[in-house]
Amino acid sequence: MEMTTKIYSVGSLDDYLLQVGRVVMVDNQEIAIFRTSDGNVYAIENKSPHPKGGPLAEAIVAGHYIYDPLYDWKIDLITGLVQSPDTGQVVTYPVNVKNGEIHLTL
Ligand code: FES
């Protein structure tokens, strides 16, 4: 199967509050967008890597980490890696901000 990537606009930076996750639907996928206190923007799959899953957009944000709202797993927004003692990884998507507009690559 051929893999293709596409760039999607998900609105302007001003549409996203600092440290508050927001869900966007892109290409039939639920993606949680986080704007951290240092101004960076991260996009991850809105699905916890926990065996029971669950959404991540309502996670508590601290630095570039989030805390899974259901299981309190600590997840690095940069790598998607679940921090010890738990293990797993959430899918991350490249984000590009240009002229105040947020673009995701899927
Ligand atoms: S808090 Fe932004 S890079 Fe660590």
Automatic annotation (TrEMBL):
GO biological process, one term: nitrate assimilation
Gene Ontology MF terms in the entry: 2 iron, 2 sulfur cluster binding; metal ion binding; monooxygenase activity; nitrite reductase [NAD(P)H] activity; oxidoreductase activity, acting on paired donors, with incorporation or reduction of molecular oxygen
Domain of life of the source: Bacteria
Rieske domain sequence ranges: 8-104
Alphabetic keyword roster: 2Fe-2S, Iron, Iron-sulfur, Metal-binding, Nitrate assimilation, Oxidoreductase
UniProt-listed SUPFAM superfamilies: ISP domain
Gene3D superfamilies: Rieske [2Fe-2S] iron-sulphur domain (2.102.10.10)
CDD domains tied to this protein: Rieske_NirD_small_Bacillus
Protein name, per record: Nitrite reductase
